[in-house]
Design a protein that fits this description.
- Helices cover 34% and strands 15% of the residues.
- With 533 residues, the chain is α/β, with parallel strands linked by helices.
- The chain folds into 3 domains: 297 residues, FAD/NAD(P)-binding domain (3-Layer(bba) Sandwich), CATH 3.50.50.60; 106 residues, Flavocytochrome C3, Chain A, domain 1 (Alpha-Beta Complex); 98 residues, Methane Monooxygenase Hydroxylase, Chain G, domain 1, CATH 1.20.58.100.
- Strands 1, 2, 5, 6, 7, 8 and 15 form a 7-stranded mixed beta sheet that branches.
- Helix 1 runs parallel beside helix 10.
- The longest helix has 24 residues.
- The two termini are 32 Å apart.
């Protein structure tokens, strides 16, 4: 079956939904918003801490936010991307409020601002400790009520469509690759339908599920990045995987692990060993408010030194009522496993959290493939550089969704549907009954990535990961060619592709910088930005 939409959006988090709402204002285009599960299961909903924007002009300014972002990114962030996000943030906050998103306010009516690690001022807007869920709620209501947006839940994008599907040879050096839509798996029929579009937007979120433990939901398998890479699009900075320092240590809860927000350290939380000893003074003068890469490596080192499986975050010295007020969800979650955070230390450990790299885009969110845009965590705008500053991700998503909407609306009339695209061909394939192989291979990818491509790396570990991923790749591609496509086998393919990209980019960067730390090159001055074309 072939369907046509002016705009095809793959992914339903803050990036995809805000783009959809912006292009829908024209009230003339058909828009499809395709998400692999339901709208409310995006990574956006997991973001507890908040969204960064300069709003208190009495104490804060754009230059401070720009400087903080560049410092956190180890000075390899793209200055133009940083400038674009920081200066456009207030307008996009106003947009979110107009769509019905509620941010906490003081009794005086101003935004109640938090401060997080790496920020020099209080500039984090929040909604208690579930800001992402509130943003997701507000946007979902607006999207579902918009008559120009068709929401396709539980639809899985298998591949984007390019000239390759017309029998034309496409390589990484082909200068004019174009995207004509995507092949999408319909869960009701089990068939792969052809979705033709004039503009396609990739907003598929992150890659955390390729690791054994992550704050991301299981659906964060890097689908958009893998699809664009297979279509010969440019992918950049995949070595920069952010490990959140403080996920709740609760064995058995790994996809997702429960996040203990950065805001809790901004509130005054102190990192300690289980015996109560502080340790951050050994690593950084900013102590528990150092940027995430420093804190995660410090915790990782202390766990190895002392043979621990976690360290602790302490807020017992803070007012109990105030703690419960600021962090009601964290309080209830910890209480459910027998921890009263007003009296007990919170056991925490680092785990995979955020991908700073992804599909390379310009300031208009255009990828290297014409008619294809990318926004949100699957994209690499250059904002984050070597390490993401806390709470910059949500604001990046809405700023770049706005840029993508403005640019795509200005060019869409140049494009038409490509009616020569053939249907998906699964002739001769059989129904896959080997689900146990796929689930086992998914676990193996997580083990490989966490063991060899984690917080601290070496060339030996990275080569070992490469060899094992290569074997899994060959086995999975062989299976994919023989069986009918399912969500599970497509996710496994994507996870292996993403694991390979992270490993390859990590091997190509011959220095320790930002989130990429290797014992083979602990100090190296050269700027060697890995990129795959």
């Amino acid at each position: 079956m072939t369907k046509k939409y002016d705009f095809l959006i793959i992914g339903g988090g803050v990036a995809g939904m805000s783009f959809a709402l912006k292009v829908a204002r024209k009230q003339k285009y058909r828009i499809a918003l395709c998400c692999k599960t339901t709208l409310d299961e995006a990574n956006t909903a997991k973001a507890q801490g908040g969204i960064a924007s300069v709003t208190n002009l009495m104490k804060d300014d754009f230059e401070k936010h720009i400087h903080d972002t560049m410092v956190a990114g180890d000075w390899i962030s793209d200055p133009m991307a940083v400038e674009q996000v920081v200066r456009n943030a207030p307008a996009q906050i106003a947009e979110l409020v107009n769509w019905g998103v509620n941010f906490d306010k003081t009794p005086e009516g101003t935004f109640d601002l938090h401060r997080e690690g790496g920020h020099s001022e209080f500039r984090i807007l929040h909604h208690a400790d579930d800001t992402g869920r509130e943003i997701q709620r507000g946007l979902m209501a607006a999207v579902r009520n918009n008559p120009y947006i068709d929401v396709l839940e539980n639809h899985f994008a298998v591949e984007i469509i390019t000239q390759h599907h017309l029998g034309i040879c496409v390589t990484r050096r082909t200068p004019d690759i174009e995207c004509y839509g995507a092949y999408i798996l319909n869960p009701e029929t089990g068939k792969i339908d052809t979705y033709l579009s004039r503009i396609t937007l990739m907003a598929t979120g992150g890659t955390g599920a390729v690791y054994q433990t992550t704050t991301n939901p299981e659906i964060a398998t890097g689908d958009g990045i893998a699809m664009v890479y297979r279509a010969k699009g440019a992918v950049k900075d995949m070595e920069f995987v952010q490990f959140h320092p403080t996920a709740l240590f609760n064995p058995g809860e790994t996809h997702p692990a429960y996040l203990i927000t950065e805001a809790m350290r901004g509130y005054g939380g102190i990192l300690r060993l289980p015996n109560g000893e502080e340790f951050m003074q050994k690593y950084d003068p900013r102590l528990s408010l150092a940027p995430r890469d420093i804190v995660a490596r410090a915790i990782d080192n202390e766990m190895k030194i002392h043979g621990l499986d976690h360290v602790c975050l302490d807020v017992t010295h803070k007012d109990a009522d105030e703690t419960r007020h600021h962090f009601p969800n964290i309080y209830e979650k910890c209480l459910s496993i027998g921890i009263d955070i007003t009296k007990d230390y919170i056991p925490v450990a680092p785990c995979a959290h955020y991908m700073c790299g992804g599909i390379k885009v310009n300031l208009d969110a255009e990828s290297s493939i014409r008619r294809l845009y990318a926004v949100g965590e699957c994209s690499c705008t250059g904002l984050h550089g070597g390490n993401r500053l806390a709470s910059n991700s949500l604001i990046e998503a809405v700023v770049y969704a706005d840029a993508a909407a403005r640019h795509s609306l200005s060019v869409i009339e140049q494009y038409d549907f490509n009616d020569r695209i053939p249907d998906w061909n699964d002739e001769g394939t059989m129904t896959n009954e080997e689900h146990v192989l796929i689930s086992q291979d998914m676990k193996e990818v997580g083990q490989i990535m966490s063991t060899y491509v984690g917080i601290v790396r070496s060339d030996l570990r990275l080569h070992r990961a490469w060899e094992r991923l290569d074997l899994l790749y060959e086995e999975t591609e062989d299976l994919f060619k023989r069986v009918k496509a399912t969500k599970e086998i497509c996710e496994l393919r994507n996870m292996i592709n993403v694991g390979y990209l992270i490993t390859r980019h990590a091997l190509e960067r011959k220095e320790s910088r930002g989130l990429h730390y290797t014992i083979d090159y602990p100090h190296a001055p050269e700027h060697n930005t890995a990129e795959v074309w």
